[in-house]
User: Fold this.
Amino acid sequence: MGLNVYAPASIGNLSVGFDILGAALSPIDGSLLGDSVSIESSTTGDFSLQCVGRFVDKLPADPKQNIIYDCYLAFRKAMADMGRTDEVAVSMVLEKHLPIGSGLGSSASSIVAAFYALNEHYGKPFSEAQLLAMMGELEGQISGSIHYDNVAPCYLGGIQLMLERDGRISESLPVIEDWYFVSAYPGISISTAEARSILPNHYSRADIIDHGRYLGTFIHALYRGDGQLAAESIRDVVAEPYRKQLIPGFDAMREQMMADGALAVGISGSGPSVFVITDSKEKAEQMHRWMQANFIQNDRGFSHVCQIDTLGTRVLEETA
Assistant:
């Protein structure tokens, strides 16, 4: 029996919550913005991996250098640690639809889809919390440190607040249902390591106070269902002032979006993708068209009108 598992794109940080907030995205036109992994028992008895999709050209040619293979090894080791050592190997196919270094949780999407597929295939030996911990560990191998602001929303859906205490990694926050997100990738790449290296080692007391105020107000506003107050609180004093220089045309884009009625504008994760929030579908579609004409730099770029994906990772198809 085979499975095809889909894991959605995500916005890490959401501007106001550096490393502790993340949101999953779902295009309103029904298309899939994320990676998918198919899995079935190997007919040869050996692991195999095939990579397909629009952004497959940036992946290593050797399947054993791919993060999916690392997921497989980590999963099999975890099963062996619980005494399960005789399971048949698998054949996997990664459909790579998110560009690497895009700020849309590309590596997280592949990792989450792989672990979810492996867990389903082998009869769900691990709990949600155990899987999430494994996902975070693999993501940390790529970014240099373990953080869950992409893997948690990608896996669980919605808007997630990272707790990482008392065995709880994240908690779902309320969603403002009439928010529309324009998610635009300009077509260039920024590595997470590069985006982190540009940040200062120390922040002023005023910045720390502002960060706490904005984050607290944002979460408070979500629970009140006050979309206007929540959007006004989406301000980034930690990363955006430094990272925006890596994104060509960012200031001009922000100015245009706010003039067109945006509620908030921010950098998606480490960039270079950006997100714009509005409470009007018509405005979102207008902004989407502007992004296509003015922000996207090459044929690798794209823009989508999205809402929050509340489903998270799921099985798209099962085959006999």
Notes: The CA atoms of residues 39 and 118 lie 7 Å apart. The chain has two domains: 2-173+309-319, 180-307.
